[in-house]
Amino acid sequence: MIAAAAALAGCTASAPPPSPASSAPTVDHDPFPSSYRPPAARPVALVGATVLTATGEEIANGTLLMEGGRIAAVGAALPVPPGYRTIDARGKWITPGVIDAHSHLGAWSQPETVDAHNDVNELTDPNTAQVWVEHSVWPQDPGFDTAREAGVTTLMILPGSGNLFGGRSVTLKNVRSVTVQGMKFPGAPYGLKIACGENPKRVYGGRGRSPSTRMGNVAGYRKAWIDAADYARKWDAWEQGDRAGDPPKRDLQLETLAGVLRGEILVQNHCYRADEMANMIDIAHEFGFRIRTFHHASEAYKIAPLLVREDICVATWANWWGYKMEVFDAIEENAALIDAAGGCAIIHSDDPILIQRLNQEAAAALSAAWRAGIEISKAQAVRWFTANPAKALGIADKVGTLEPGKNADVVLWSADPFSIYARAEKVWIDGAIVFDRADPAYRRHSDFLIGQAGERR
Amino acid sequence: MIRLLATCAALALAAPAAAETVAIVDATLMTMTDAGEIAQGTIVIRDGRIMAIGPDVTVPAGARVVDGRGGVVTPGFIQADSTLGAVEVSQVPASADRATHSRSISAGFDISLGLNPDSILLPVSRLAGITHAVTTPLYDDRPGRDLQFSGQAAVIDLAQRSDMVTRPRVAMVLEMGEGGAERAGGARGAAIVALRATLDDVRHFARHRAAYDRGEGRPQRLSRIDLEALVPVAEGRMPLIVKVDRASDIVDMIAFAHDEGLRIILDGAEEGWRVAAAIAAAKVPVIVDPLADLPRSFSQIGASMDNAARLHAAGVTVILKTGSGVAHRARELRYGAGNAVAWGLPHAAAVAAITINPARVFGVADHAGSLAEGGAADLVLWSGDPLEPLSQPRLIFVEGIETPLTARPLDLRDRYAP
């Protein structure tokens, strides 16, 4: 926002030259800008499919029109305008592109057992809010390709959960690129990874330093927010003052935290237990920021009304549980109970294998809901891996649903995506095809796999 | 409402299965025998055994009739490469008995001893149709420890009874490839030499037990306990589960087993599709994770979603598993099998790969794995296709015992659901 204002000022050639004091450089809040530009694509019409729009609708014999990188129209048996390439989609299903709200692809790349490929946790201090995970992302991670082949068009890459403050997240378009800048989702806000519970206290307690307990965790968060509030106040005073003299010295760590206090950076909070989530909500109230999403959040079902009231999304699994104490009470119905309470439920992966079948994980969650007598439709449950993660990532105005004007991120499935047998057949990002199962040219494009013994086709 | 249904199910269970006759009628029966798949079949269970099964079976008078229309009956599923019964919370070591770092017990570790029938993981897994598991030791590597074997696996049932071991000591477990190389000092060449030396020691021990009893045997790297445990392996009586993924490691281990007269079962085999014909020719069964499609290491560069389908097509006996040493996520077994079908494995072959194939390979086909007259009633009635997440079990028998459709997570759900 500040950068944009500065750029605009530079364009007003007729204005008098600014005084030296007010022309002091403002902070560039986008120093690693997205270089992604959607390729031009011919208009495409998908005809005859069952369409889950992720707005709550299931359309039989649906037509989807994509033009200029956007959804042009969606509805039952629409006429196809001239100039469109028509794809017969009878018997198939269409959803928005799959969005994963929790991934480490690129930051912990395949081969993941190779130490050199683990760049996900900066375990040198409990507060590493100054690191940006995009600087760890290796775009050649073969996991991006397998995820794309499964319909994943957008994903948020997060730093790990070993620290209280893990660093900034980055939201990516799942397109092939040699640079991470070429994948960055234009206009997507940054996130800040915060971790509750066992991980930070285990990592640092094991080294004989704070935090070694959950109360140590909370003291660590609060100290950081006190420092951040002080930093934000000094910068705001300077920005809004006469800008005489030197600006305050920048501090990357505090700059990210101050961005949260200003509402520009979204809090993405790894937190399993209900009691800890309630504590984190109180901390947010104390310092005047909002939590956008609780990740994993296995016990969200125990405090569903609180999370709905606070408008905090819950990104969780159906099947993962029991690997440590704080996930002992996870239940398959977690997402469904949040949804049924009117909240924002998300099925996420945190895993390069599971990211390839978020639709199936959602099916398991939906099945558990039906078993419990909770009435949720497929048209609603599809939002768990499309519209709701778009909200969590702050990009719901651009992607996540099939509505005219939205980016044309689309998956054509071979069957009902809630069936175990469904496979993504074709995938579009911004109206450009990025995967076609019928065309071997779209398979396994990571440089890492080129020329290796196991390479296929 | 939920609570009420659960209570009724629990009460129904309280009546021992032996006291009544149960007839499931009008269901699709996936028998996993020569009878194949029977549409609209009936299965009659009495005293824990299948009394009759077929398309034209008369329901005995007084039987409890379960309407199976639209449903499918399968044998109970068998989770291979599991740690069910040997772990409660993965990161709480005291709650886990799946690995040992004892210096004197490696091959001798017998996981069938000290398992926990009250584990809350068992009913959770049962609700996914799993009635048995091949509970398989893991390694607990520590600095300075280079034990070759992780121990001996056992087949258990999930009925939650004290007598939960269906068959102890069904196989010895050995990791080769990268893991084996690391334990042998960092190279595959060392691991294979060490294994050959171990087998030579075991055979020497077996031939000269009396001398060893007198304290006159030759110096041994392994403890007496480990040597004793390895005798049936060296004599080809106990199968050796060999964990390898790289195509060359698979070929090497098949040749090694042939030279040494070992019976092996390959576990992992992520590049198995590249050498499928060699595996089939050697008649070696393979345990694979159907979802392993990433090059997680330099031994798994060729990992592919159609590994199971290609192995099956080549004539290999395929067993499907969920990850490695799985316990909490065992309930995903049927989803993995469904994915294997989506990638080319025939549906019946996928069900065989989680029922009759592991039952035969691990020697428990008289307890589980098929639906046959006179056999144990080890089966699940599903609301639909058992491999679909949207299907759920409606009736579960573990070796003749009807088990309730409840589990701790469902109790938690009912406590908090509005």
TrEMBL record, chain A:
Amidohydrolase domain mapped to chain residues: 303-435
Sample GO molecular function, one term: hydrolase activity, acting on carbon-nitrogen (but not peptide) bonds
InterPro entries, sorted: Amidohydro_3 (IPR013108), Metal-dep_hydrolase_composite (IPR011059), Metal_Hydrolase (IPR032466), Metallo-dep_Hydrolase (IPR051781)
Segments for region (Disordered): 12-38
Pfam families registered for this protein in UniProt: Amidohydro_3 (PF07969)
Gene3D superfamilies registered for this protein in UniProt: Metal-dependent hydrolases (3.20.20.140)
Keywords: Hydrolase
SUPFAM superfamilies: Composite domain of metallo-dependent hydrolases, Metallo-dependent hydrolases
Protein name, UniProt field: Imidazolonepropionase-like amidohydrolase
Organism of this sequence: Sphingopyxis panaciterrulae
TrEMBL record, chain B:
Spans through the membrane: none
Highest taxon of the lineage: Bacteria
Keywords: Hydrolase, Signal
Any single Pfam family the record assigns to this protein: Amidohydro_1
Gene3D superfamilies: Metal-dependent hydrolases, Urease, subunit C, domain 1
Endpoints of the signal sequence: 1-19
GO MF: hydrolase activity, acting on carbon-nitrogen (but not peptide) bonds
UniProt xrefs under InterPro entries: Amidohydro-rel, Metal-dep_hydrolase_composite, Metal_Hydrolase, Metallo-dep_Hydrolase
Domain Amidohydrolase-related: 285-389
Identification of the protein by name: Imidazolonepropionase-like amidohydrolase
Organism per entry: Sphingopyxis panaciterrulae
UniProt lineage: Bacteria, Pseudomonadati, Pseudomonadota, Alphaproteobacteria, Sphingomonadales
